[in-house]
């Protein structure tokens, strides 16, 4: 079992996530790559004090980038889409 504070790394605030937050009560987070759906749900409920309806997890592959004449690669990471039950919300600017 992972430590709760290390599971949710940061909230992703983009144009798409803001629209989803307003219309469907969905919030996007960057999470630890070793965390599973159950751990993400428990961490969100305990740390953010909300009721979670659903969790979707997406593994994002790092892009290949050129640095001078050598090719490099950004790190792989995991994204979680957390759907909250009606009546719950997260203050995105206070997190």
TrEMBL record:
Q: Which UniProt keywords are given for this protein, alphabetically ordered? A: Ribonucleoprotein, Ribosomal protein, RNA-binding, rRNA-binding
Q: What does this protein do?
A: One of the early assembly proteins it binds 23S rRNA. One of the proteins that surrounds the polypeptide exit tunnel on the outside of the ribosome. Forms the main docking site for trigger factor binding to the ribosome.
Q: Which GO terms describe its molecular function?
A: rRNA binding; structural constituent of ribosome
InterPro entries per the record? Nucleotide-bd_a/b_plait_sf, Ribosomal_uL23-like, Ribosomal_uL23/eL15/eS24_sf
Q: Which domain of life is it from?
A: Bacteria
Cellular component (GO) terms are: ribonucleoprotein complex; ribosome
Q: Name one GO biological process term.
A: translation
SUPFAM superfamilies under this entry? Ribosomal proteins S24e, L23 and L15e
Origin species:
Syntrophus gentianae
- Output this protein's name: Large ribosomal subunit protein uL23
What is the annotated quaternary arrangement, including any partners?
Part of the 50S ribosomal subunit. Contacts protein L29, and trigger factor when it is bound to the ribosome.
Q: Which family does it belong to?
A: Belongs to the universal ribosomal protein uL23 family.
Pfam families from the xrefs? Ribosomal_L23
């Amino acid at each position: 079992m992972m430590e709760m504070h290390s599971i949710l790394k940061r909230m992703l605030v983009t144009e798409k996530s803001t629209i989803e937050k307003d219309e469907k009560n969905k919030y996007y987070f960057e999470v630890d790559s070793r965390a599973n759906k159950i751990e993400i749900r428990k961490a969100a409920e305990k740390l953010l004090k909300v009721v979670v309806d659903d969790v979707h997890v997406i593994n994002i592959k790092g892009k290949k980038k050129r640095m001078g004449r050598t090719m490099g690669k950004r790190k792989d990471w995991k994204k979680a889409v957390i759907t909250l039950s009606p009546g719950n919300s997260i203050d995105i600017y206070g997190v």
